[in-house]
Amino acid sequence: MNLTLLQELYLGSNNLSGYIPKEIGALTNLVGLDLSINNLSGYIPKEIGALTNLVGNIPKEISVLANLQTLDMGYNNFSGPVPSEIRNLTMLQWLDLRNNMLSDKDMEIVATFHYTLTLKIV
């Protein structure tokens, strides 16, 4: 089955388990992806970085990823604001939000981080 033209994939609350397959990176026309409220495990495949058309807000639920060290959401169409809960990601070392639809006002929360963080916003 060829799903390369798929634009929205909403699999939230489906009790999915296992890992996110690397083939998700082939869905380059996705503008919406929801994998929330499942039992997914393992690593997030680097191929997910090919999804450069995602749009919408960054969800506050991102804060449950307590051990997240790298978050690269650059080159998409995310709009703000960046949720204040993102400050709870105390293991985060790299945050890339560049080339999105985020204004300076949307980014205000990022200035309040209390730990060392490499930040790409321009």
From TrEMBL:
GO terms for molecular function: ATP binding. Keywords: ATP-binding, Glycoprotein, Leucine-rich repeat, Nucleotide-binding, Repeat. The keyword ATP-binding applies. It comes from the Eukaryota. The keyword Glycoprotein applies. InterPro entries: Leu-rich_rpt, LRR_dom_sf, Plant_LRR-RLKs. Pfam families: LRR_1, LRR_8. This is Uncharacterized protein.
